[in-house]
């Protein structure tokens, strides 16, 4: 009955791992052929894979795990999806109803453990409720501000003899759930009035704009406004990175021009972004002269950190459409020329301390490989068209800074929770969704070891992902902070020669491994890796261990206060 | 910090109370006191029924009264976070009421 409901909901793919309390469901999977089940090697991998699938497609990811350890192993992935507002439905087996509360084998209070990191959760108390609960779960997960939903199912609820008259509801009807859809027209008017009189506007778009599929509306808005655009780590791709008006990412490791523009703006148009602490630095010093228009679907995200002057609640796609409409009617009151001075100021910031996108040209072996150059080479070899997943740390920031994303849903990373181990399973999820697209996992030797077991899943399902391991033989971002804030004391951030031979490791899983240690070999090695279309290739690139990520905001200060290199501050 | 009273009308479902109490802990808010009653007289909540196009039945909803110590700016955030819980139908403090995303500028509960 559960499988019927999932099929009727349009589910095509489930990532999971079987176990006692889920065995009835697994038997039902065996006896049907409409939904594919992907067997991972660890439940965390299942959640990240479903998450990657959801981020790349916009459709909810579906996970199936058993009770107890199966459920607890899934928590990290659920929390990852929760922090980044990714639609996901996690079905966890539970011990039989009569055993609940008795400390039965593999019993865990999944609803209790997952509560702080889910949008909502359900327990099935009566098998007849399964169709309704499935319908509601998918509705909640995908509407409003998306998020993960857990359905906990005691084993007896899925027993094959537990039959009932099945009908799948057409619509979820939850009277106490009603997320805003259409914006208030008065707020749109106020927003447009503010925009018309602005001389130093910045569009600041985040993951919410991607969740709302608002790339066309955002682009149209800026065809009218011609304003500079910055994206959060979660928003990369929602505005074409190669567009002249794109400032790059902002925040902790944002570009100089993006942070300077935000700090000096007179108007910030925030679109599906939440003024996270990695963006604002010290909120009391944040952008002192700017008014804030905040478009969001979630009431609680607005004026949480930075007070909004004008709040527009609703699906940001709809809110943008409404703004575009009204702007078009008032187009005679707006002149792009009024922004000339602002653009020339930004161009000057960009030319003084912008990022160097041509590091790949230096192929000299006089110095070690630079991680930035690795990302630039990957960008070139993939023609900028790949789906790029990443893990967490320096490599993640280098990827975000140097891979130019022109389309949304191509940059797949754990932004809010910062989950190491995310990259490889997420890449699997993307590859299942788009088997004919290039999928690259840019990772580090620390992160990749947190879900390395999924190399086996990649073999089982023949997933020709390309793994680029930016290997600095240390937990790079931890080490960077220790260099900058702890007198260079590298407490527990290095492994003392205990790293595996990643080439042999990849080979032992039946994949191809390539080791790169010299600058002059890098380009050729990457070209070779990407030429092997039907193989997973693990490229282990040894980079300069001393390299840091810059710019970097100076803690507790404004967005103007940045480290530009190891010894240079703004 | 001022002591304030919040009133919630919520679905009487298993685990619903834990979601409210858990949210206070999770977000670092304080609970000074908490009182829960089942609601069987719906006459004062007709405006909610009308707005949500529903009809309350016996044992379906509960009324929570929570005393909390908070600043003004946090008060609004707490209201919005509570309003976001799926089982919460309406929430109000002295000045405002949220009925599922709709903000009304008075205390109606």
Name a few traits of the molecule:
heterodimer; A: alpha/beta; six-stranded parallel β-sheet; globular; B: globular
Task: Characterize this entry briefly.
The complex is a heterodimer of chains A (570) and B (109). Chain A is of the alpha/beta class and 570 residues long. Chain A is built from 20 helices and 21 strands.
Question: Could you characterize the architecture of this molecule?
Answer:
The complex is a heterodimer of chains A (570) and B (109). Chain A has 570 residues and is α/β, with parallel strands linked by helices. Chain A is built from 20 helices and 21 strands. In chain A, the strands form four sheets. Chain A has a six-stranded parallel sheet, sandwiched between helices. In chain A, helix 1 crosses helix 6 and helix 3 (43-57) packs across helix 16 (423-433). Chain A is globular, with a radius of gyration of 24 Å. Chain A starts with a helix and ends with a strand. Chain B is α+β, with helices and mostly antiparallel strands and 109 residues long. Chain B is 28% helix and 34% strand. Chain B has helices at 16-26, 46-52, 72-84; strands spanning 2-11, 33-38, 61-70, 88-92, 97-99, 102-104. A six-stranded antiparallel sheet of chain B has the order 2-3-1-4-5-6, with helices on one face. In chain B, 31% of the residues are buried.
